[in-house]
Amino acid sequence: MMEGDSTDTFTGNRGLRLEEPLIFEQDAPGRSGVDLPEPLPVQSRLGGLDREDAIGLPGLSEPQVVRHYTRLSQKNYAIDAGFYPLGSCTMKHNPRLNEKMARLPGFSDLHPLQPEATVQGALRLIDTLAHWIKTLTGMPAVAMSPAAGAHGELCGLMTARAALEARGDARKRVLVPDSAHGTNPATAAICGYEVEAIPLTSRGRVDLSALKAALNDDVAAFMLTNPNTCGLFEDEILEQAHAVHDAGGFFYCDGANFNAIVGRVRPGDLGIDCMHLNLHKTFSTPHGGGGPGSGPVVLSEALVDYAPLPWVVHGDEGFRLVEHEGDAAGAAPYGRMKAFHGQMGMFVRALAYMMSHGSDGLRQASSDAVLNANYLLASLSKELSLAYDGPCMHEVLFDDGFLKGTDVTTLDFAKAMIDEGFHPMTMYFPLVVHGALLMEPTETESRESLDQFVETILHLAKRARAGDAQAFHDAPVHTPRRRLDETAAARRPILRWRPDPVQGEAAE
Amino acid sequence: MSDLKFSKEHEWVRLEGDIATVGISHFAQEQLGDVVFVELPDVGKQVVKDGDAAVVESVKAASEVYAPVSGEIVEVNGELEDDPELVNKSPTGEGWFMKIRLSDASELDGMMDEAAYNDFAASPG
Questions:
Q1: How large is the angle between the packed helices A344-380 and A120-137, nearest 10 degrees?
Q2: Which residues in chain A have Cβ-Cβ distances shorter than 8 Å to B57?
Q3: How far is CA A144 from CA A74, A157, B8, in A?
Q4: CB pairs under 8 A between A and B
Q5: Does residue B77 lie in a domain region?
Q6: What is the mean pLDDT of residues A284-303?
Q7: Taking a C-beta distance cutoff of 8 angstroms, is the pair A225, A180 a contact?
């Protein structure tokens, strides 16, 4: 137990905020939610591998289980509970209309192995969503199957690799700027490339001359994030694209921040060869603890022929899935990324979002996201130190310069925000900015909620500078648990519950 | 004044004969915060100057440790696997990462002495 966990109530509960033991700690042997008859004895076909001991599941009644998970859910902080300005992750409202559409039995009760004739509506939905994606990005093709952002990055790089190998020009290096998402270099490495970092200028954008100097006939791709993780639009992107193409490489763009430019800029007009979209960020499908991602990848003409299977085509008798290379009409797909067709539930939600907003509504949403971020930039710059001059795009980046000499760190500041009822922003990322605080308000926050956030942050910044460091070191004080020991959790993690915990192993 | 030489990537080197002991600087461990994991190269691996040699992971971030000199890895500090906090407690002592048999001693010429490195680390940016 951490210091400060004790309460003065008999139960340990604080009002209606209830303490909840682990489900295993509530085990009462023999207790059960259902009462089934003993099965009849059967001849074992397990070849001597029959289980000998109890499986070790806890025994609880149904009402105990219901309370357990309800109490856990009440400890959760989510976009449905409050403001969640997590930079680079776009925690915005997920419209309930999307959920209603996704629960239609014609979508929710499908099996991916059903005959095509029985799933024409679902195939049409994939085809319509692909049409919207291609239109919004200005790209000729899209691979729908990748499961989320990093999977989409891998899809994009594998497509580029297939195209390079097809022309007998396998290359070795991938260039990634310091302002890219952290998954980009990881993707390049897992795809078998050497990764080389490209530095930024003092404007927080890719150093074009450094990029040009690093390019040669050994570079397979340049992986840009635009808008980048400093929340800035890469305004030399056309020059970057020319330079990469002149060197014979492919131009990958991480589209995780596409939500800042939907309806305003088409990646296809910027010389991009492949870009994944995070449907779960840009087009509002629940993610993180709330659901899976979905990361379709748009492809330029140069890469169309190498797209992974499967894809939907208009056949003589309705929609049809191309599932095999022999059926690919001369294309050379490199394989498939996923057993089935993609994250169908996310497809339904994303298309519901697109169609309910319309193209004008999508443009409005991205415009409002940028406006809200600039509202934070303008309001918070009074007390906080901006990492790079604005205006910014959908997120605003501060460094910890405003905390210099206060003995308060970015982490302390974030913990104090929790006490005020806010989910902290992204901290210490991007790495190029010291003690980074990256805030993404999204378009779905009202002026009132932004104002309350701004006043809170200004108040905390003044308090830090007034010499109240101890209060920040103590934070959080109003949470079910106080400051957790992240170091011990990482160095000596306890990954499973055991009946007899080994004392002293986890606690320092 | 120590006998250490420093790189701009915040590694230090201590030379004994043709064996260079390598670690990360006090400044680097301070910037990283509590180190929770260190990935070391295999003994026998050839490393090249400024190429990837190890990975250090803290509560804040994972970072590459570059080889400040080229050569062959002859020994690594296995203690770090169980006690990564040695990097924080004693970055230039018990928290060393690896020993490299130098292939080109002249690569040390471009490195900074402690005074020059401290000035470099203290400068903004």
A1: 30
A2: 490
A3: 35, 15, 44
A4: 20
A5: yes
A6: 90
A7: yes
CB-based contact B84 A491, cutoff 8 Å: yes
Tokens found for residue A465: 């500078």
Give the SS3 label for residue A196. Answer: strand
**Pairwise CA distance, residues A18 & A12, whole Å:** 8
Q: How is residue A278 written in tokens?
A: 């995070």
CATH code for the domain of B77: 2.40.50.100
CB < 8 Å to A428, chain B: 60-61
Mutate to test the interface with A, among B60, B85, B86 (most CBs of A within 10 A): B60
**SS3 state at B71:** strand
Q: Considering only the beta carbons, identify the residue of B37, B60, B85 that sits closest to A428.
A: B60
A183-190 helix and A149-166 helix, angle to the nearest 10 degrees: 40
Residue to test with chain A: of B30, B31, B32, B36, most A Cβ within 10 A: B36
Given a cut of 90, whether residue A54 has pLDDT beyond it is: no
**Banded model confidence at residue A475, pLDDT cuts 50, 70, 90:** very high
Q: Which residue of A has its CA nearest to B82?
A: A491
Q: Each residue of B68-124: pLDDT tens digit? A: 999 999 999 999 999 999 999 999 999 999 999 999 989 999 899 999 999 999 886
Residues 60-89 of B with CB under 8 A from A: 60-61, 63, 84-85
Tell me which chain B residue has its CA closest to the CA of residue A436: B60
* Residue B83 belongs to some domain of the structure: yes
Could you give the 3-state DSSP secondary structure of residue A404?
Answer: coil
Among chain A residues, CA nearest to B34: A487
Give the residue numbers spanning the domain of B58. 5-102
Q: Distance, in angstroms, between B15 CA and closest chain A CA? A: 29
Q: Which two tokens stand for residue B35?
A: 């180190």
- Interchain CB distance below 8 Å, B61 and A490: no
Q: Does the residue B64 lie in any domain?
A: yes
**Residue B88 falls inside a structural domain:** yes
**Dihedral over Cα of A269, A271, A277, A282: its sign:** negative
Model confidence, pTM = 0.89
User: Is the confidence at residue A3, as pLDDT, over 70?
Assistant: no
How many separate domains does chain B show?
Answer: 1
Distance from CA of A32 to the nearest CA of B (A): 41
pLDDT in tens, A367-410: 999 999 999 999 999 999 999 999 999 999 999 999 999 999 99
Q: Mean pLDDT throughout A88-102?
A: 93
Query: For B53, phi and psi rounded to 5 degrees?
Result: -130, -40
